Amino acid sequence: MSGLDEGSCVPSSIRPGDVLADRYRLVDLLTESGGGRFWRAHDRVLERHVALHVIPADDERADALLDAARRSATVHDRRLLRVLDADKADGLCYVVNEWGSGDSLDIMLASSGPLSPRRAAWLVSEVAASIAVGHEAGVAHGRLIPENVLVDHAGSVRLIGFAVDAAMHGLAPGRVSTDVADLGGLLYCALTGKWPGTSQSAVPAAPIEAGQVLRPRRVRAGIPRSLDALCDEVVNPYAGAWGDRLRETHDLATAQGIGDYLCAFVGDPTGLAAAEAAAGHRDPDTITLPAVADPPVREPSPAPEPEPEPEPEPAAAPPSSTDLPTQAGLPIFDDDNDDVSWIAARTEAAPPPPPFEEPPERPLFAPESETRTPRNPAPVATGAEYWPFGDASTGTTAVTGATRPAPAPSAPEEEVPGRSWLRLAALIAACLLLLVAIVVAYNLGRGRTPLGAVPDDDPSPTPSSPATSAAATPEPIEGLTATDFDPQGDPSDENPELTPLAVDGDPSTSWRTSTYEQDLGPQGLKTGVGLVIDLGGTHDVAAVDLTFVGEPTSFSLYVTDAAPTAVEDLEPAAADTADGTRTRVELDEPVTGRFVTVWLTSLPAVPDGFRGEVAEVAVRG
Question: Which domains does the chain have, with CATH numbers?
Answer without folding.
Answer: 11-98 (3.30.200.20), 102-278 (1.10.510.10), 474-620 (2.60.120.260)
